[in-house]
Structure formats: structure tokens, C-alpha cells
């Protein structure tokens, strides 16, 4: 087993966003004290509370624990007693904190380590699911228009230059669709946009509204290849500036208008409503409001498509991701998503789960990201570099293990019969 | 406008089931009294409460009402004052009762009449949906094992000879799948069975359990064409006798076992769980129980498919259908169906809505049924003949208008990665 990929614990560079203002980047060196019997029993309890996955936990002075009779496949180094105590008290949140700050290090492959731990935790909790969740609907906090803006700035306004380093050429920051697992990320993002357009059964001249348009790739793709007019909403200014520039330079400014606004600010009537990767930021408290927006926006024969990270059952987001990466985010289960559709009698035509496609998309992103970590480190400090590495790897593990799902839900108004007879048209060459 | 298709109001023939024991079949002749001003104002209120559809309502003495300024497309004759008062008091239930007993008659095309009325009623109620249903889950009554048997006998044990008159050759009494709208019913039922088998990704030698197997067509099809072993449960004895005889005569008895039993009696482990057209009879109170059955029945990489009539939002079945045709039945919304999946963390991979395919299936059934009404009348009385004509026509209207949906939901255990990469394989020739 080799040492982890992160070894240089360099001092932080300049901070550009809220990301690096926590006096971070000063990784604690290895504790010089010997570990106590108490430290070592804490370590054993920690392994046991993870369900004894085949990993080795090691303290600063070489004291270690590992499950008996299974070969160890990865390991974790804990560099100081403070990190050990924090991890023991709040493992879900502190793993991310300690990993980012360099006070713990993964030995071996980070992704493999995370998969082993997630799998083990899932086994532990599987038997508890029926009683724990019953029919409860988790309510995320209220994302008012202004809080929504803060949440979105935190993540999406980190800088276009940063995202350019590891996204595809068109800057599509949502799950791609791989007709075959081996197509390139570029091809898969284009295939995703076509998959969405085909599901929506777009006809030339139709009007489309997009809620949460990212860097504008989908809106521009639909205008160029499907002859529709698109009104695309976003509250991330960095993304909007980029999208508008693309529309201008590609001669599509008359077909695509990018609007700085929240989904709640959508006005007008459209033949299609599309939202790819926004619902995660809406919060279940606001699903009825979103349903109302769709209700007032769709023409009689209009179609809607919502593409979102989701879950098999209601639950809360990993607390570290929810605090450091995606504040205010909540991936819904299908019963939670039905709060958008059922009160308005929308007719769900098609739900497709693309979970493994998101794992594949993230594998591309992580590979590119890791190849560019030095450049990321020219923009941000090491804490940022490690946090994003962990977020990408952790997301791959979550989609592979099935903690996370990716739902594409296609719907119409109740009783709309202007729909394709079968889904075969989605798979025609 | 021609007079209705039913004109002969003959005396009842012999009764074979609970269907015709209500002293029925003595259609009231036209009332000889003149209608009063009160009768006529009741008629006007009735039209208005239907939302003024373009139909004419006519009393026994020729007094009539119709909406102004729209051409009338169908009509209803009400033959006596008693029928008028019953209809006015409980229209949803009494329409079926009065139609079956011949005390009201539809003028023009029955299906067209029903579509006009349903459409009009839907327009009236559309604005009310959001407040009425909120997040409420309608609870159907408790279908204990013995009550479930009574419910099923009422409908499915009417007699194989009866169903043979108007179903396809293989006696498939669920929504077919029409790759193109113009394929025959026989082709479409076979295509449905293949569609289900492909979704379940069956491999030769696998074990399948079927809950609610009807006359056994799907179980036999899967065994013959996909090389699987099937254990098929049903509580309708007439159907089981037929299915067992087919298995014997087709040499499939070693691959398919038909078991008299409720879904709750399923024991053993299977690679696939399939249920086509049973969930409607389960009742939401029992969805958790059904989830438990699936949970204990599926192997680690097992797949499940549930095919059921459903709705866009929780609601109760038409009261006449619920009492006379399908006692104990409840077509669920997707949020209600999630009570089967989410408590157990099942991962929904694919939901397909085949609403218009059910309308098309029912059109075939109604056409065949109408062509065989004389033969039906040799088995049952006129009340039965009319009730089933109304049920089939009403169902077409409900699926066309979107009051009813047809959901096929494919799922696996949480985190199962032994699944097809895309759905393209469903559409390969």
C-alpha cells in the first residue's frame, strides 16, 4: 500500500471566495506525544462504529487497528489527538474538515477508501431504514430568494477559470448521459442535452424556459439544434456573464436570453419547462411554489423535465457536503418530488434513474481535477484543493453505492395527449 | 343523432354470479306522468353541475335541456322520475346503476358521451386540485386475505367463458403495449410481455415470482421465451384452473408453478418479482406489507416490476366502479406507490406511463365486447351486459382524459449495480 496522494502540506495561497477564509491551510504536524490507551480504544471504537470495513486506522505514533481476518485495502492516518477526538465525536462532518485541513490523510486510493467506508455504513444502517423513515418527509431549511443567492454564490461563483480546468469544453456541471460507458465526457454531455431535448419532444419555433441554466450550454444547444427560443434563468452572475458572452459570440443572442433571476421570477408561457441540476438547491419547503411556477408557465400541451440528484428514501445530505460544498441543498426522494407534481395534477410520463451515469461523469471530473491540482493550487489554498478532491471522490462513491440517485422526470399537464406514443424515439440514431 | 345502441330492454336471463342477484333487469318503462316544473329545473341544475357539457338531457315526456350556443354531441334519456331524483342526488354512483338497469339511455355514442362529461367535470375540478389534495394520502379500506378473496372472486371468477369472448387469445386482462398504435391486440399483449421481460432483464435459469398472475399468460411467456422458472400466485380459482391446464397442455408444467395464494403468502428467494395489474386490488394500507414481501423475496441483485393503474394525484375511485366492478380497488398515485419502495430503500430505475396504451387496449376490448353482446346475454342478464359495456367505455374515457394513468415501475434493491447501462435494449429489434 502506497502513501496517499496528498503529501505536500504547503501554506495557503490567496483567497478569492468564502472558501478559504477560515484561517485554514495550516495543517497540524504529527503529534509528538505518544498515544494513550484511551486514544487507542477510541480508535477501536471508531472502526467498530464504521462497521469494521477492511481499512486500517493509524495514529500519529504508529499505533494502529484493523479488522481481523480480512485483508486491509486502504488506511487512514490521524496526525494528532485533536483530530482523533473531533472525528470520534462528529465523524460525518469532521472527516471532511480534518481531511481538508490535512490533519488526517488517506493511505492508498481515496475513492476506494470512501467506497469501503460507505458500503460498510450502508450495511450497518440497512436494517434500520423501515422504522427510521416511515412516511416522514424531511423538510430542508427555507431557501428564500436572498438565501438562495448566497447558497449559489458560494458554489457556482468560485470562478469560471476554476471550473474550466476540469469540466468539459461546454462547461456542463451536471450528470452526463453515456450512450455507452466508454464515450468521452464531451460526447456524453452532448448526448445528455439531446436526451433531454428528445424527452421534451421539442418542435422548431417552440418557446422553452430553463430554470437554473448554469453556463448556458443546454439553452444554447436547444436553440442551435432544435430551433427553439429559450429564456434561461440563473442567479449565479459569473455563470450568466459567461453564458451571455457565448450566446453573443455564437450568434444565438436572438434565440436565447439569459435572465438574472430565481425560478420564482419566471413569467410568461412556454411549450417546455426544463430544469437540470437546480432542484437540489430548492428545498422541499419550496416544491409547491415551484409547482405553481410550472403550472402558470406551461401551455396546454406543454412538457416539463426536471433533472435532479435524488435519493431512494427521504434523508438529509451528508453534513460536511451540506455545510462546506452545497449549503441549503437537499436531494429529494421521488415521494418528495411528487410535492411538485401531484398538487397540480401534472402527469408523470417517464422517470429515468441515471445514477451510474453520474458516477461515470464524476470519474471524468475527478481524473481531470487531479491532473490539474497544481493549477487549482495557484488559485486556492491546499485546504480548498483537498476539499474539492474529497467532494468529487465522495460523490463517485455515493453514486456507486446508491446513497445518491439521479432522476430525470418528464411530465405534462393532466390529460395532455400530444405526447409520443412510446419512448422508442429516444433511442433512434 | 341516432338513438342509443341499447334499445331492447329484455327480461333477465339466468344468474351465475353475485352480479345479477339484485332483482335487476326489470327496466322501468317510461313514466306516464308529465314532468313537472320541478323535474325540469332539476334537469337544468344537473346539466349545470356537470359544467354544461355539449349534451342534451331529456325527460320521459320529451322535456329537454341543452347548453346554449354549442352544438349538442350526445344525449341522455331519463325514463322516470325516480331515476331523475337518484341521479340528481348521487350522480357518480347512480349513473352506473340507472344505466345498467335501463332506466336511463345514452343517445348517440356512449364513449363520446362519457368523454364529454368527464372532460367537463375535469375542467370544473381542475382549479380545486391544489387545495383539495395537498399531501393527503387516501387510505383505502383494509383488504384482509379473506376480503381480498371476496373482491377477486367478484370480478375475476365471473367465468372464463365470458372473458374469452372479448379478451385476446392468451386472455391477458391488463394494459397492452402497442409498439405502434395500429398493431393487433394479440401482438400488443405479446409486446407487453416482452417489454416487461426486457425491463426485468431476465437471464435463462433465473427464478421469477409473479404476484397476481391472471390466466397465466405472462408466467408461461417468460418461461417459454426467457428460459426462467416462474412461481405464480393468484387467488382466483377460475383463473388458476385455466392457467394450470395451459401449463400442462403446453409442456411448461415443470417450469411454471401456479399457486393458489395471496401475495402475502409468497415464500422463497427470486431473481425477479413481477406483478401486473394486482396493485390496484392491494390498497395503500397494505403497501408496506407488500414492500416487506418484495424485500424478503428478492436476491441481492434481484429486480422488481410493478404494473398498475394509477392516478396523477391521490384520489378515490369512481364510486360505481368501486362498488359494482372492482370492490376494494384503489389506483394509486406515484407518491402512494412510493410507500412500497421508500421504506425499504428500493431504488426506482424506471417509471413509464402507458395511459394511452390502456385506452387503446380498452378500445379493442369494447369493440369485441359489443360484437359479442348477444353471447354475453346468453350467459347474463341485460343489466350485466350494460354494466360491463359502461365500465369498458368509461375506462376508455378515463384513460383518454387522464383521470387514470398506467404506471410500470422498475426497481432494484438499494445500490444494485447489475443493471443495464441504458434503456436502449428495450427498443432493439
Oligomer: homodimer
- How many angstroms separate the termini of chain A? 46 Å
What's the name of the CATH homologous superfamily of the largest domain in chain A?
A: Vaccinia Virus protein VP39
Low-confidence stretches of chain A: 1-26, 128-139
| β-strand number of chain A | 11
Continuous helix count of chain A: 16
Query: N-to-C SSE series of chain A?
Result: HEEEHHEHHHHHEHEHEEHEHHEHHHE
Largest sheet of chain A: 7 strands, mixed
Please identify, by name, the CATH architecture of the largest domain in chain A: 3-Layer(aba) Sandwich
Q: Percentage of helical residues of chain A?
A: 40-55%
Helix vs. strand class of chain A:
alpha/beta
The radius of gyration computed from the alpha-carbon positions of chain A, rounded to a whole number of angstroms, is 23 Å
Q: What is the strand arrangement across the widest sheet of chain A? A: 7-6-5-8-9-11-10
What is the name of the CATH class of the largest domain in chain A? Alpha Beta
Biggest interface found? A-B, 53 and 53 residues
Q: Residue-averaged pLDDT of chain A, rounded?
A: 89
* Overall number of domains of chain A: 2
How is the CATH topology of the largest domain in chain A named? Rossmann fold
Sheet-strand content of chain A, in percent, reads 15-25%
Amino acid at each position: 500500500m502506497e502513501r496517499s496522494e496528498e503529501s505536500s502540506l504547503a501554506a495557503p495561497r490567496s483567497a478569492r471566495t468564502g472558501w478559504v477564509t477560515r484561517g485554514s491551510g495550516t495543517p497540524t504536524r504529527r503529534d509528538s506525544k505518544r498515544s494513550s490507551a484511551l486514544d487507542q480504544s477510541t480508535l477501536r471504537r471508531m472502526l467498530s462504529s464504521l462497521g469494521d470495513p477492511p481499512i486500517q486506522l493509524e495514529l500519529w505514533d504508529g499505533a494502529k487497528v484493523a479488522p481481523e481476518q480480512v485483508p486491509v485495502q486502504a488506511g487512514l492516518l490521524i496526525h494528532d489527538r485533536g483530530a482523533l477526538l473531533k472525528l470520534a465525536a462528529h465523524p460525518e462532518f469532521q472527516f471532511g474538515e480534518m481531511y481538508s485541513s490535512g490533519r488526517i490523510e488517506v493511505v492508498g486510493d481515496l475513492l476506494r477508501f470512501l467506497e469501503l467506508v460507505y458500503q460498510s455504513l450502508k450495511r450497518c444502517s440497512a436494517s434500520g431504514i423501515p422504522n427510521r423513515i416511515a412516511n416522514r418527509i424531511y423538510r430542508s431549511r427555507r431557501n428564500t430568494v436572498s438565501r438562495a443567492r448566497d447558497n449559489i454564490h458560494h458554489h457556482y461563483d468560485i470562478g469560471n477559470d476554476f471550473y474550466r480546468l476540469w469540466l468539459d469544453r461546454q462547461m456542463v456541471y451536471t450528470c452526463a448521459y453515456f450512450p455507452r460507458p466508454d464515450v468521452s465526457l464531451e460526447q456524453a454531455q452532448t448526448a445528455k442535452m439531446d436526451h433531454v431535448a428528445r424527452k421534451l419532444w421539442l418542435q422548431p419555433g417552440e418557446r422553452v424556459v430553463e430554470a437554473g441554466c448554469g453556463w448556458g450550454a443546454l439553452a444554447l444547444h436547444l436553440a442551435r439544434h432544435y430551433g427553439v427560443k429559450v429564456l434561461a434563468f440563473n442567479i449565479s452572475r459569473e455563470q450568466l456573464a459567461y453564458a451571455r458572452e457565448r450566446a453573443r459570440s455564437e450568434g444565438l443572442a436572438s434565440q436565447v436570453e439569459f435572465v438574472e433571476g430565481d425560478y420564482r421570477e419566471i413569467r410568461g408561457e412556454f411549450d417546455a419547462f426544463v430544469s437540470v441540476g437546480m432542484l437540489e438547491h430548492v428545498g422541499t419547503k419550496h416544491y409547491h411554489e415551484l409547482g405553481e411556477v410550472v403550472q402558470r408557465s406551461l401551455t396546454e400541451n406543454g412538457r416539463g423535465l426536471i433533472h435532479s440528484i435524488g435519493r431512494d428514501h427521504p434523508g438529509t445530505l451528508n453534513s460536511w457536503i451540506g455545510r462546506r460544498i452545497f449549503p441549503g441543498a437537499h436531494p429529494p426522494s421521488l415521494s418528495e418530488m411528487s410535492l411538485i407534481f401531484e398538487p397540480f395534477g401534472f402527469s408523470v410520463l417517464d422517470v429515468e434513474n441515471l445514477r451510474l451515469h453520474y458516477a461515470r461523469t464524476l470519474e471524468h471530473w475527478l481524473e481531470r481535477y487531479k491532473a490539474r491540482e497544481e493549477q487549482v493550487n495557484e488559485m486556492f489554498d491546499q485546504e480548498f484543493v483537498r476539499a474539492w478532491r474529497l467532494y468529487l471522490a465522495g460523490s463517485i462513491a455515493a453514486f456507486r453505492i446508491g446513497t445518491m440517485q439521479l432522476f430525470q422526470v418528464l411530465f405534462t399537464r393532466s390529460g395532455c395527449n400530444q405526447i409520443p406514443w412510446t419512448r422508442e424515439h429516444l433511442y433512434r440514431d
